[in-house]
Design a protein that fits this description.
Elements: H1 2-5, H2 11-33, H3 39-64, H4 67-94, H5 98-104
Helix pairs in contact: 2-3, 3-4
């Protein structure tokens, strides 16, 4: 659990962070280029986005939050990440999916 709370520490988390960066760099333009939507891409985005964001926010916490407040801030970040992951999963499972929802923002 401590590896998830302090997600900016350790080799494994760095590999996951870099892997999620590569996945997002490939998945995002692919999702936008495909007509309509793609469930496998939406599901991959639904995992990669919260994982990447969680680890990145932990880097910010380490750099800018005082040590006395880091524990609570990391716990709040984990709760926000969980809520984001659940929301994206529901959007993919019960809604139009991440890709179609994002594309709808640009339609009149």
């Amino acid at each position: 659990m401590s590896a998830v709370l302090a997600a900016d520490r350790g080799r494994a988390m760095m590999k996951i962070y870099h892997g999620s960066s590569i996945a997002l760099a490939a998945l995002t333009p692919t999702a936008m280029a495909i007509e309509g939507g793609s469930a496998p891409i939406d599901l991959a985005l639904g995992v990669a986005l919260p994982v990447h964001s969680h680890i990145a926010l932990n880097f910010i916490i380490s750099d800018y939050v005082p040590k006395s407040a880091r524990g609570a801030t990391r716990a709040a970040t984990l709760a926000l990440t969980a809520a984001t992951a659940i929301g994206l999963f529901r959007l993919n499972a019960q809604g139009e999916g991440i890709t179609r929802t994002a594309k709808s923002l640009w339609r009149a």
